[in-house]
Amino acid sequence: MKIKDIFIALIVPILLGFGFVIAKPAMEYFPPFLLMGLRFTIPALILVWWFPIPKALLFDVFKVSFIGSSLQYALTYSGLNLIDASSAVLLVQLETPFGILIAFFLLKEIPTIKNIIALTISFFGVIILTGAPNLEGQYVGIFLTISGAFMWSLGAVMAKTLSKKIGAFALMTWLCVFSGPMLIIISIFFDGNPVNYILSANLNSWLILAFLGLIMQPIAYGAWYFVLSKYPVNKVMPVMLLLPITGLVTAIIFLGEEPSQQVFLGGGIIIFGVSLILFKNTKKSK
């Protein structure tokens, strides 16, 4: 990848990892589905006026938003309620191998041996970072979380083709147009009247929501669809393995957490494995 594109790709796990950590206090006032629905709705309301309706691709955009956002969040959050945090962090990272496998079958993208080895190294680092989670008796939660990871990967691979046709930020905007209302409807079904939560939220929660909707969502996913449209999935998807590290760094700085040496070892291995993929043949790029 070009150096410029590497930096753009790194924006994604940095902003998402930061956003996941600071979103925790906001969930005391906004249920997860409502928070995600508002996160998508805010940029949709602001940006939709700047991009023409992709009439010929509207149903394809709807499918990606349903699979990669609404259905994915429903499965993932349902699973997260049933398993411990270390299990969730590990299982969600299956998005990367899932994405590479889906791209192989749908897009005929064949990863190199070096990329496969580097991915294996990085995933080993994730296991060290998260520890050895206890998955005994948590089969429903495991299935739901893995299903959510698969749906996110499928949506990302489907979005790759669309991003080439209408552009990264236009795609991000129109996915938000569909995803926001769908997630709010899911929230109404599971959590009840959203107005009660909206009226009771404090200023800090609204500031967090503003960051998620105005900065994290448009910039992170705009950058994601941009690099995804330019490079093979097996080249871009491993960047997401850095997300636990950025989330951990944010937790250390803002929540005062004190990680063990095991965490630093796992993080170092992840960074090493991902760098093997990102920086391959960088000097030859023009």
- Write down how many β-strands occur, each being a DSSP E stretch of 2 or more residues: 0
Largest sheet: none
The helix-and-strand class reads mainly alpha
Overall pLDDT metric: 86
Helix tally equals: 13
Radius of gyration: 18 Å
Distance between the termini: 10 Å
Fraction in helix: over 70%
Question: How many individual domains?
Answer: 1
**Shape type:** globular
Q: List low-pLDDT spans.
A: 282-286
SSE topology string: HHHHHHHHHHHHH
Strand content: under 5%
In short:
The chain has 286 residues and is mainly α. It is 78% helix and 0% strand.
Give the helices and strands, then pairings.
Layout: H1 3-26, H2 32-47, H3 58-80, H4 85-92, H5 95-106, H6 113-130, H7 139-166, H8 168-191, H9 194-200, H10 203-230, H11 233-236, H12 243-255, H13 261-278
Summarize the structure in words.
This protein is globular. It has one domain (3-284). It has helices spanning 3-26, 32-47, 58-80, 85-92, 95-106, 113-130, 139-166, 168-191, 194-200, 203-230, 233-236, 243-255, 261-278. With 286 residues, it is mainly alpha-helical. Mean pLDDT is 86; it is low at 282-286. Helix 1 (3-26) packs across helix 12, helix 3 runs antiparallel to helix 7 and helix 5 (95-106) crosses helix 7 (139-166). The protein contains 13 helices and no strands. The N and C termini lie close together (10 Å). Helix content is 78%, strand content 0%.
Structure keywords:
single chain; mainly alpha; 13 helices; 0% strand; globular
